[in-house]
């Protein structure tokens, strides 16, 4: 059986439970502390799971500017307060008076933004300390950012004020492109026109909270505009169950699909017969699972997702943000699954 790679990442709660690490504001806002923490995590993973291929005995630093807000850089750019807790990734607090703000929304001036000044300062600090640095931002997508910034008001506006909602979603897409072209590309020394021919990913995490029809009418225009700015390999990430949205996403012409846990991989393959698909094992489903049941689940996923013998069509299964409820035994079983299916 052709078997995909399995990638496992561990949640802040896992690191706190086993190693006492905290993820408060002081950690995220110190770029050197972040860099050294990532290195330490790789060393600890090697000590614990090096025999099954996780971690690194002597990891080199990989300094990244832009991680101060976790996945919420774009929310902070729009002015949201970012909240930090000891055992989770940062989260964004919806803007106050979001309904009123939505009516008069305008994109912040990039060069005047405090978070833009911060990522540029981080880049200089990390480059001076390590001799190298990379700028990276988790952009999300128009709806991701609208929900993070405006909360439920963007949903209400989609139904009651569709033109205002479409305008807000378009602005969210334009902000992504502005940060990409005016901030990340210059820091990385890549001309935007060159970067537009490289890989780009669009996240549609909250789409499962609206109907496929509403997605097509309200969100797709902004998604499609953003997608059309890039000519290179394009990844579409959908956090939830993908099945009902498969045809709604066809205009985006994704080169890679990343679908949420519980999705019917057979249904996705029927609509996208030649598109590589990656997916996830839901972390909660791994708590207390037996090895036999795990292998049954994995075998079914491969059978549905692989067309013929083309392994490139199902390159990876991810376990994202595993917590302490996922036992070391199951981690080892996941990392050695390919051997059992060989």
Number of helical segments?
A: 15
The level 1 CATH classification is Alpha Beta
Strand content: 5-15%
Strand order of the largest sheet: 1-10-9-8-7-6
Describe this structure in words.
- The protein has about 350 residues and is of the alpha/beta class.
- It has a single domain, classed as Alpha-Beta Barrel (TIM Barrel), CATH 3.20.20.210.
- About 45% of the residues lie in helices and about 10% in strands.
- The chain has 15 helices and ten strands.
- The protein has helices at about 10-20, 25-30, 30-50, 75, 100-105, 115-130, 140-150, 155-160, 160-190, 190-195, 210-225, 265-270, 290-305, 330-335, 335-340, and strands at about 5-10, 65, 80-85, 90-95, 135, 200-205, 235-240, 255-260, 275-280, 315-320.
- It has a six-stranded parallel beta sheet. A two-stranded parallel ribbon has the order 2-5.
- Helix 12 links the parallel strand 8 (about 255-260) and strand 9.
- The longest helix is centred in the middle third of the chain and has 27 residues, at about 160-190.
Briefly characterize the structure.
With 342 residues, this protein is α/β, with parallel strands linked by helices. The protein has helices at residues 12-19, 25-28, 31-49, 73-77, 98-103, 114-130, 142-150, 153-160, 162-188, 192-195, 212-227, 265-271, 291-305, 328-335, 337-340; strands at residues 5-10, 64-65, 81-83, 91-93, 134-135, 200-203, 234-238, 256-259, 277-280, 316-322.
